[in-house]
Design a protein that fits this description.
Elements: E1 6-8, E2 14-16, H1 20-34, H2 43-48, H3 56-86, H4 91-119
Antiparallel strand pairs: 1-2
């Protein structure tokens, strides 16, 4: 490797390596992420703040459509988990998918409750 952390790989391709300073910065940022709680700005939550702008039937249709999208998402997570297992990915990688799946499940439960409230004119 040369002074810039570059070397020549097979076929003349440039191979880059991380410097000790880069490793230290990565470690610092990784550890910082564990200790921070950042707000998640989801366009869906922005849309929720304006649900009163939709006619009741359109709002119910939007809720139904989103529930179907979330349900389809569960299949995507299962296929991704199966693929990761087949590829012998580390077990901790599965947890990212499980967390996303749990977030979808929480939103699906909320939507089911919201639909009932909309039907009963308790929302918006």
């Amino acid at each position: 490797m040369d002074a810039a952390g570059e070397g020549r790989g097979r076929g003349g391709r440039t191979v880059y390596g991380i410097t000790p300073e880069g490793r230290a910065e990565f470690d610092r940022r990784l550890r910082a992420c564990w200790g921070e709680i950042m707000p998640i700005v989801d366009p869906f939550q922005v849309a929720l703040t304006f649900m009163d702008r939709l006619p009741k039937d359109d709002l119910l249709a939007a809720v139904r459509d989103r529930r179907e999208l979330l349900r389809a998402g569960f299949g995507m997570f299962e296929r991704a988990l199966d693929g990761k297992r087949a590829g012998n990915a580390p077990r901790h990688v599965d947890e990212c998918l499980r967390l996303s799946s749990a977030q979808y499940r929480a939103q699906l439960e909320w939507l089911e409750q919201a639909a009932e409230k909309i039907v009963n004119d308790d929302l918006p």
